[in-house]
Write a structure and sequence with these properties.
Blueprint lengths: L4 E5 L3 E3 L19 H13 L5 E4 L2 E4 L2 E7 L2 E6 L9 H15 L5 H8 L5 H20 L4 E10 L4 E2 L1 H7 L6 E10 L3 H14 L5 H13 L10 H6 L10 H11 L13 E7 H16 L5 E4 L3 E4 L2 E3 L3 E5 L5 E6 L11 H13 L4 E8 L10 E2 L6 E3 L2 E3 L2 E8 L1 E2 L2 E2 L1 H22 L1
Parallel strand pairs: 1-6, 15-16, 16-20
Antiparallel strand pairs: 2-4, 3-4, 5-6, 5-10, 7-9, 8-9, 11-14, 12-13, 14-15, 17-20, 18-19, 21-22
Helix pairs in contact: 2-10, 4-7, 4-9, 6-7, 6-9, 10-12
């Protein structure tokens, strides 16, 4: 039994144990945190980020973020949840990992899964493993080098003689000259970021295979000096054809260095966060599904915004345009189940505006579902807005509720999800033809 791991679903509550015995359930699973762990999470909440959970008396109330919270040696795995009665943490642990891998377009999908075996901290290990693979690719193509000036006392003359310093240093030794000269070294901000992320990553995993790989990579990395690394530095980095092969490695390094909540000024932090907004993850997942499914030339899948007031934009999650027939269908994702299967007024108004601005007679509010065995007709609830007139023309438009099963038999169902999104699209197109 893993005594340093808690599996819990989003929006659930994590309680502080009243005693050591109270930390565990009757079947020996870790279910609560200690007072010291609560204090660390409390400090993290106030110092680093208040987005992930809220605080109450002796309890942590989780929000819509999923992934890993590490408090000292304790791993808190926060998992997505569709059904309130859901209890299968192992299933959702696997689905979350698969969803992250698909959404983030990891290069090493198969080898990652075989290496990590879905361990307690594998969401974090997944990224570290991918990061190491990207570093190996950078090293294979060669570290970028650049010219910089170096001051040194050398035999002979190179570059520019610093006469004042030379007189002081070499007053009794005329065989050397103090010069300022150019050197061609890998000492630049890109290499330093990778080197720093390598060192940080070794403190973020307990996977011995990863630790060994990280140490090996660190041993072959050259000396790259010291640089300041913060969010401004990452924002200033630009890529071109000469350094484009660094891009994936730098993105993962930023996640490891900058987005985990590590306090680099002190060298360590008791709490490490590696969490994803589940609303954004579901949106990105369905967007990638649509991009993968609608590959034909007549389709354009995008999420471009349109200006609707001053500099404010409206921006649907997914827009599918068909150049052949001129129709547009919009999908707006919602990681929730609407109460009594009735959408909120705000969501309906949002779709109404999208339909108007994008000339889309039929759009969807797209929710997750666990009903993978249902026919497509049973996964759609049609609904029409009241007809209205604009410039003398009567306009008709609809908002359908779509319920998308994303898993089957405990696994992420990519093929099934692609097939269902096309079926939902075709049903909307059929309805559009009738409205027209």
């Amino acid at each position: 039994m893993k005594r340093n791991s808690i599996d819990i679903f989003e929006h659930e509550t994590l309680h502080v144990a009243s005693s050591n015995e109270d930390l565990f359930s009757d079947d020996g699973k870790r279910v609560k945190i200690t007072s010291d762990e609560f204090i660390s999470l409390q400090r993290f909440h106030y110092r680093i980020s208040s987005n992930f959970y809220s605080l109450s008396h002796k309890k942590i109330i989780l929000k819509h973020y999923v992934g890993l919270l590490r408090v000292g040696k304790l791993n808190i795995n926060i998992l997505p949840k569709i059904d309130k009665s859901e209890t299968d943490t192992r299933k959702w642990h696997n689905i979350l990992i698969q969803m992250i891998m698909f959404t983030k377009s990891f290069r090493y999908k198969r080898s990652t899964i075989s290496l990590l075996k879905v361990t307690d901290s594998s969401i974090l290990d997944l990224y570290i493993y991918e990061f190491y693979k990207e570093i190996e690719e950078v090293l294979r193509q060669g570290l970028r080098r650049s010219y910089s000036f170096k001051d040194g006392n050398i035999s002979g003359v190179k570059g520019k003689i610093l006469f004042t310093r030379d007189v002081i240093v070499n007053s009794s030794d005329k065989s050397k000259t103090f010069c300022r000269y150019q050197v061609y070294k890998p000492d630049n901000i890109l290499n330093y970021i990778l080197h720093l992320a390598l060192k940080v990553s070794l403190n973020m995993t307990s996977n011995m295979s990863l630790i060994e790989t990280g140490k090996n990579l660190l041993s072959v990395f050259p000396d790259v000096g010291n640089h300041v690394v913060n969010s401004k530095v990452f924002n200033k980095i630009t890529f071109n054809r000469n350094n484009s092969y660094y891009k994936s490695a730098i993105s993962l390094a930023k996640l490891i260095i900058h987005d985990t909540g590590l306090d680099l000024s002190s060298g360590s932090e008791n709490v490490v966060s590696f969490l994803f907004d589940m609303n954004q993850l579901f949106e990105e997942f369905m967007y990638k599904i649509c991009k993968k499914e609608f590959k034909e030339d007549e389709y354009q899948v995008h999420r471009s915004g349109k200006r609707f007031w001053e500099k404010k934009l409206i921006k649907p999650d997914i827009v599918i345009e068909n150049a052949k027939c001129g129709y547009t269908v919009i999908f707006d994702t919602k990681w929730k189940i609407p109460k009594d299967l009735r959408p909120s007024d705000a969501d309906l108004k949002q779709i109404f505006v999208y339909n108007h601005y994008y000339s889309s007679p039929v759009s969807y509010l797209l929710y997750p579902s666990t009903d993978d065995g249902k026919a497509i007709e049973d996964l759609i609830l049609p609904g029409d807005f009241q007809n209205y007139a604009l410039n003398g023309e009567e306009l008709k438009n609809s908002c359908y509720l779509g319920f998308m099963p994303i898993s089957s038999e405990g696994k992420l169902d990519l093929k099934g999800t692609q097939e269902r999104i096309r079926e939902m699209y075709l049903i909307a197109m059929h309805r559009t033809g009738k409205l027209g």
